[in-house]
Design brief:
The structure holds two protein chains of two kinds. By secondary structure, chain A is an alpha+beta fold. In chain A, 21% of the residues lie in helices and 35% in strands. In chain A, the strands form two sheets. A six-stranded antiparallel β-sheet of chain A has the order 1-2-8-11-10-9, covered by helices on one side. A five-stranded antiparallel β-sheet of chain A has the order 4-5-6-3-7, covered by helices on one side. Chain B is an alpha+beta fold. Classes of the chains: A alpha+beta, B alpha+beta. Chains A and B meet through strand 3, strand 7 and helix 4 of A and strand 9, strand 15, strand 40 and helix 24 of B.
Chain lengths: 190, 1005
């Protein structure tokens, strides 16, 4: 798919953390009653994961699920197959009241790599990034400075940050400014 | 003279000399000095001129309460006015200038105000400059602005050279203040298991204790502080931030911390200030106490200082403010200063103690050192100009008779201590008046409360009003324990260390010295140094009826300067209460407001400057527009091309060219910014029937319909094309600025009113790039790309179809906002640029012309299509715009329907939309008014309408406009007059708003 063009052409920055715009990520918004049996079974059947609890994430290989609200989930899958996955899921849940939309192009995903990632995010998001409070398995749907964003940790040194595509440049600017080498706070690590 | 002494100076490093400039003169200090201590060490007692009278002023305090020693710091892009010398850490190359003087600090012309001071009393400006009225703006104000004031504003062309950031932190217990009380509170809370963050505004921990002496658990305070820090550092749940001030306490445990990272080392990289945005479950304010000045004549002469400050300069920085210092006091604490001075080998000719019986153990110590103590004594006045010359001794109970003139070069004064209750009070904590201490103290029964009604601020140590070292430590440990248990942490040792210090005899309140000071003395007794408010001013305010402390404050400006009256408030309101013959608690205090001391605008702005000042939303084709000369227009946070001027072309020329090219052949528009909301569910049709004024539920899958959205009050708020995707699913297009608000509007109705309707919405705006291909050759271009049938029969006007173009999956809507044959193509955002490039390339044979928002506006205006934000302004209903055809008569209800039936909404006199054509073909001014006969009661010309959209139409080669006009649709052909700037008017004919192709033939091909 040579025609695919990311918002920032795979921009990268190296500072307190390494920041990198990731290649296309398949994303499917599911709105529905997350406790509904058909919906749970369909998500499990297609994505191989159980719907996560409040503020939670779930991953299985190249698929995943992010809890967005009591009636909204963001499902992750490979970019190329997202449309087909969305169609298939829509078909499976057609008798339950649900809305499935392929939104794989609506957002930009950044990877933050390094032990200071908590601090870089805490400069921008009004979320408690303390170890023990925010850990892998958790998601925050919040804001980074002036725009909406969500993020989660894959492990202690890796986090992914998601924002809308149109503000990718702004968010990259925020993250790289906050990851300036001379601006360590050393609040979480001493 | 003030100078460096060879002993003491616990905070300076004599091995690290530092040079700096004050008013252009090179001076030397040591690493660890403040600017104030270094200036004193260089005998620079005179540091500035006062606000109103330009009186010479020296430093009076040693910390953030300092009112006098304000300087302009730095140069060029780093210049900052009103910086306190007492909180400015010295660094190599520091440049400071004194303020409010002309031509020089030593010889100031404005001092003439001083001799006129009897005419410049409280309320002078109000009384003097009220008449004649026009004089205020042109004569009085410029003059006052020139003669009064402190620092200069930075040059308007300078740009802050530093960067700033925010940091969000969360903690169980936040301790503000790193003196021994704060440290003990932090220790107790952290030992109990609570997560603790301690902020200290200076670079040093320990506060006053190491200067004031005594022992803690038998240790020297310095040693105890070091041990406490060591323990806190070792605890994983405790953290200390120095150079970080607790600036303000807000609702629900929200606190702003102001960290000054590089003020002491401006060449260091990294942010200069960091604003900590803290959420704390419990807040302990261990902010200490501030010593009060005494109100005697000449108490502002350089060399008169707070006794505690003088002790600080000596012990912390090894600086003596004078060789011979007279101490004036009403309490025991000031004796510590006398003792310290004598022990450092300096002279104290006398201690003037206003108390008839003097003090306790400390007085005995002083006497044992051979210091002369006069009890029941008063400083009647201090003599001197730019520095102290002598003190005239009298009797406190008397009326100013001078018994003796004592020659000296410095005066240490102490009127007692006021707990720093600011942070306690920021969020509603109340105070009580402690008669014995003559101080306001936090009233624990009326603490600031959080969401659950429970207190969330606790005061500790001197901030709670405890003044003896042992009581401070016990109190602080209790505060730590209380805070910890409030957050469920209760393990560990809550015992406090014991503090040993001499017992002190009670003070005697002294609000005026001597008690019967005549007017001549009272007019030279300063309360507020920074704003030049004297005892006589406050008395005058009371006499003139300003009985409320808040009124007296504003009338006299007491406490309204940058120091917010840290030294003056209590003395001022005590003076006011005496003048009113009321008790101090009845008069009360003014309101304490954050920040505690001024914080930088940079810190508040944080990272938001330059490229990341605010988000700029970019479409997938943004870079193409940029490299093809787009002249940008901000639309919400988006940037959209206004036009694409080519080399040698003006923006206006480009707009005209783009319109003609589109009408005659082929245009291309980036419409990606339009909102795209998917609405699905069995009740979706019913839901959209409520949201839009027209009927959406009857729309057939595969078809599009233009719809209007109104607020509950009936006003037109958004419009757009709705496409029905399938039986249950609709795609609602919104305006560019409306995407988020319309989505929120939908969710609000679904979540609060129609929660039982089965409807889901998703805002899919960013998923798609959308490109409008417009013009007579539009179909040919799509057919050239190939992949789907876009013939007139297959894709009729107001239809849509999914398919492929040039190998890319697309959804094509055959809709038109221009009156031309037009296709709006939606494609996945990541493929938007690819499709755009293919369209541009394949369209060359028809001279494909990308057009911007202005051409879009002209194209729609030529067709009489309305634009939200032009024809609407929040007061316009669809009926005003002749859009009755888009308002369903069949529906029983839609949002806004009821409101549109109100009497004013059906008033036939509402201005209605018409077209306007000038008789001379000129273009009307944007927003021009249609004038009517005569004038209203205010002498303003009556109006009968206004222009909402006006353009030069290249298609028709004349000006065209739309406007709202009284009875407009009934006055077709009538000529009215419209404003044209100044007194000029221009005549225009009322016409049909559809100027071009009224039959719609061009889009129906």
């Amino acid at each position: 798919m040579s025609d695919v063009q990311l918002a920032l052409d795979g921009a990268a920055f190296d500072g307190l953390v390494q920041i990198e715009e990731l290649a296309g990520q398949g994303m499917i918004t599911l709105r529905g009653d997350l406790a509904d049996d058909t919906i749970r079974a369909s998500v499990n059947g297609l994505f191989g994961i159980d719907i996560p609890a409040q503020r939670g994430t779930a991953f299985a290989g190249d698929t995943g699920a992010l809890w967005m609200s009591p009636d909204e989930m963001l499902l992750l899958c490979p970019y190329e197959g997202a449309r087909a996955m969305a169609d298939e899921l829509a078909e499976k849940v057609k008798d339950a009241h649900a809305l499935v939309v392929n939104v794989s192009d609506a957002r930009t995903v950044f990877r933050l790599k390094g032990s200071m990632l908590r601090e870089v995010i805490a400069k921008l998001a009004p979320a408690d990034m303390s170890p023990g409070v925010f850990e892998p398995g958790e998601l925050r749907r919040t804001r980074l400075a002036q725009v909406a964003a969500a993020f989660w940790m894959d492990d202690a040194r890796n986090a992914r940050v998601v924002c809308f595509r149109s503000v990718a440049g702004y968010v990259f600017g925020l993250l790289s400014t906050s990851a300036d080498d001379a601006s360590a706070v050393n609040h979480f690590t001493r | 003279m003030s100078t460096r002494v060879q002993t003491q100076g616990r905070l300076i490093n004599r091995d690290r000399p530092v040079s700096f400039k004050f008013n252009g003169t090179l001076l030397n200090g040591y690493l660890g000095d403040t600017l104030a201590s270094a200036l004193l060490a260089n005998d620079q007692m005179l540091m500035g001129r006062s606000f109103k009278y330009h009186r010479p002023r020296g430093v009076v305090a040693s910390g953030s309460e300092e009112p006098n020693a304000l300087v302009g710091l730095g140069e060029g892009d780093r210049f900052e006015p009103n910086q306190r010398a007492t909180t400015t850490e010295l660094f190599h190359g520091l440049t400071a200038t004194s303020q409010n003087h002309w031509p020089s600090l030593n010889y100031d012309v404005g001092i003439v105000n001083n001799t006129l001071s009897r005419f410049l009393s409280a309320g002078f400006y109000y009384k003097m400059f009220i008449h004649p009225r026009p004089f205020w703006k042109h004569i009085y104000e410029p003059f006052i602005r020139h003669s009064a004031g402190l620092g200069k504003a930075p040059d308007s062309e300078s740009r802050d050279a530093d960067r700033y950031e925010h940091f969000y932190a969360f903690t169980d217990v936040l301790v503000i203040g790193g003196g021994v009380a704060g440290l003990q509170s932090a220790l107790t809370a952290a030992r109990a298991g609570a997560k603790v963050l301690l902020l200290e505004q200076t670079a040093h921990l320990g506060g006053r204790a190491p200067v004031d002496g005594g022992t803690i658990d038998g240790m020297d305070p310095d040693a105890w502080v070091a041990k406490a820090c060591e323990e806190l550092d070792a605890l994983p749940n405790a953290q200390i931030r120095t150079r970080t001030m607790g600036a303000g306490v807000y609702d629900h445990g929200y606190v702003l911390g102001y960290e000054r990272l590089t003020d002491h080392a401006p060449e260091a990289s990294g942010p200069r200030h960091r604003l900590w945005r803290i959420r704390a479950a419990q807040i302990i304010t261990a902010t200490g106490a501030i010593e009060r000045p005494l109100s005697f004549a000449g108490n502002d002469i350089p060399g008169v200082m707070l006794a505690s400050a003088m002790r600080d300069y000596l012990v912390n920085f090894g600086v003596s403010p004078g060789d011979r210092t007279v101490v004036v006091t009403n309490n025991d604490d000031a004796y510590r200063t006398a003792i310290a001075l004598v022990q450092a080998g300096l002279k104290v000719p006398a201690i003037l103690d206003a108390r008839p019986n003097g003090g306790g153990a400390l007085m005995d110590d002083a006497k044992a050192l051979g210091i002369r103590v006069e009890t029941g004594a008063a400083a009647v006045k201090v003599k001197g100009a730019k520095r102290v010359h002598s003190v005239c001794r009298g009797v406190q109970a008397g009326d100013g008779e001078v018994l003796e003139e004592i020659f000296c070069d410095a005066v240490a004064m102490s009127g007692g201590w006021s707990p720093v209750v600011h942070l306690w009070s920021h969020c509603g904590g109340k105070l009580f008046w402690d008669e014995g201490q003559a101080a306001f103290r936090p009233d624990h029964a009326r603490a600031p409360t959080s969401h659950d009604g429970a207190p969330f601020v606790i005061t500790a140590g001197s901030a709670d009003g405890e003044m003896h070292l042992n009581a401070v430590l016990q109190n602080a440990a209790n505060a730590g324990k209380t805070a910890a248990s409030a957050v469920g942490a209760a393990k560990g040792d809550a015992a406090a260390p014991s503090g040993d210090a001499p017992d002190e005899a009670p003070l005697v309140p002294v609000w005026m010295m001597p008690q019967g000071a005549p007017r001549k003395l009272r007019t030279k007794s300063w309360l507020d140094y920074q704003n030049d408010v004297k005892v006589s001013d406050v008395q005058l305010a009371a006499q003139e009826g300003f009985e409320s402390v808040e009124h007296a404050k504003r009338y006299t400006t007491l406490g309204m300067a940058t120091d917010q009256g840290k030294l003056s408030n209590i003395n001022g309101l005590a003076t006011l209460s005496h003048a009113l013959n009321e008790d101090i608690p009845q008069v009360g205090t003014t309101t304490f407001r954050p920040p505690y001391t001024p914080i930088s605008f940079g810190a508040i702005a944080g990272e938001a400057r330059g490229e990341i000042f605010q988000p700029i939303r970019k479409t997938p084709m943004h870079d193409w527009h940029d490299s093809n000369g787009a002249h940008w227009e901000p639309v919400g946070h988006w940037r959209r091309p206004y036009a694409y001027p080519q080399p040698g072309e003006t923006v206006e020329d480009a707009v005209q060219r783009e319109v003609l090219a589109t009408r005659n052949s082929l245009g291309l528009l980036d419409a990606s910014t339009l909102g795209k909301i998917i609405v699905k569910g069995p009740d979706a049709g019913r839901f959209l029937d409520m949201l839009y004024t027209n009927m959406m539920s009857t729309l057939k899958p595969g078809r599009c319909r233009y719809g209007l959205m109104c607020t509950e009050n009936g006003f037109l708020s958004d419009d757009g094309v709705v496409a029905r995707i399938d039986e249950d699913t609709f795609l609602c297009h919104t305006t560019t600025g409306g995407a988020e608000s319309v989505h929120a509007h939908m969710e609000e109705w679904l979540q609060t009113e129609w929660w039982d309707w089965k409807v889901w919405t998703v805002n899919a705006t960013e998923q798609y790039a959308q490109i409008a291909v417009v013009g007579p050759n539009a179909r040919k271009l799509l057919e050239k790309l190939g992949g789907m049938d876009v013939s007139q029969d297959a894709l009729t006007f107001m239809g849509w179809a999914d398919g492929a173009l040039a190998g890319l999956s697309v959804r094509v809507h055959r809709i038109s906002f221009s009156g031309e044959l037009s296709f709006e193509i939606a494609v996945a955002a990541n493929l938007g640029r690819a499709l755009w490039d293919k369209l541009v390339e394949a369209g060359q044979q028809w001279n494909i012309t990308p057009y911007g928002t202005e051409a879009l506006h002209i194209l729609r205006a030529e067709k009489g299509f309305i634009m939200i934000g032009d024809e609407t302004d929040g007061t316009v209903i669809p009926q005003d715009l002749g859009l009755d055809w888009a308002i369903s008569k069949k529906k029983t209800d839609y949002i806004g329907k009821r409101a549109q039936q109100r009497s004013h909404m059906v008033d036939p006199k509402r201005w209605k939309l018409v077209g306007l054509e000038t008789l001379d073909g000129s273009t009307l001014k944007d927003g021009a008014h249609a004038i009517a006969d005569a004038s209203n009661e205010n002498g303003q010309r009556n109006t009968q309408g206004r222009v909402t959209s006006t353009y030069r139409s290249p298609t028709l080669n004349k000006g065209i406009a739309m406007g709202l006009v009284l009875n407009g649709p009934d006055r077709m052909g009538e000529v009215i007059e419209l404003t044209a700037g100044g007194d000029d008017t221009v005549k225009a004919k009322i016409v049909n708003p559809v100027f071009f192709d009224p039959e719609g033939a061009k889009q129906n091909v």
